[in-house]
Structures are given as structure tokens and as C-alpha cells.
């Protein structure tokens, strides 16, 4: 068994500025349709966007490539279950690259101006 882990820390103000400048265009570039639908239900939209973005960065770091070598930001989808728990859905090159995943988890937390995310995969060797 191999453990793959990534972490990301993000200042929410950075995401807020980009969102206020580009709004829907920015969301469509970094989020899937389902992710957009989920964040629009929330009053703290800047924190939700930042949380999903940070979680995607953590997943890309766990993969070991970041967003390069064919891995695109929308290949990683962070969806919240009804109870709020975030889960990872992989698509495209990210799914192909990780291959035989036994389990995955992602945790997203925020405090004041920052969001932090950690992603962990257990992979069969």
C-alpha cells in the first residue's frame, strides 16, 4: 500500500478578487457544473470557491505533478455530500494517473482569511 498526500493553504482574498473580476468565467474555468451548482447554494461563496480550489491543489500535489503533465483542474472534482463532507471525484488524466486507488479523503478548513486543505489517497502497489 502506498500513501499519497498533498496539502494547500490559500488566502481567500486572492480568490475573491479574481471572482469579482471574472465571475462566471472564472468559475467555469476551475469548477465543474456540479461544483458550481453546489457553491451557489451557499452564502459564503468566496470561502466555498477557495475551499474547492485549495482541495483541488492538494489533490494535484498528492498525485505528484500539480497541474501539469496533462492533469487539468477540472479533472479533479470536489463534491460535498448532503452532510457537508467533501469527497474527491477524479476524471481524465488524474484518474488514469492514480490508477488503483483503495480509498481517498479530503478535508477543508478555514479560519479568518485562509483556507487549508489536505488530500490523502491509499493506492495499491
Summarize the helices and strands and which ones pair or pack.
Layout: E1 2-11, H1 12-22, H2 24-30, H3 33-39, H4 45-63, E2 76-80, E3 86-90, H5 92-98, E4 101-111, E5 114-123
Antiparallel strand pairs: 1-5, 2-3, 4-5
Helix pairs in contact: 1-4
Q: What is the count of structural domains? A: 1
From the N-terminal CA to the C-terminal CA, the straight-line distance is 6 Å
The total beta strand count reads 5
CATH architecture: Alpha-Beta Complex
Structural class by SSE content = alpha+beta
Shape designation: globular
Q: Which residues sit in consecutive blocks of at least 5 with pLDDT less than 50?
A: none
How are the strands of the largest sheet arranged? 1-5-4
Describe the structure in your own words.
- The chain is α+β, with helices and mostly antiparallel strands and 125 residues long.
- It has one domain (2-123): Ribosomal Protein L22, Chain A (Alpha-Beta Complex).
- Helices cover 41% and strands 33% of the residues.
- It has five helices and five strands; from the N terminus they run E-H-H-H-H-E-E-H-E-E.
- The chain has helices spanning 12-22, 24-30, 33-39, 45-63, 92-98; strands at 2-11, 76-80, 86-90, 101-111, 114-123.
- The strands form two sheets. The chain has a three-stranded antiparallel β-sheet. It has a two-stranded antiparallel ribbon with strand order 2-3.
- Helix 1 crosses helix 4.
- It is globular, with a radius of gyration of 14 Å.
- The mean pLDDT is 95.
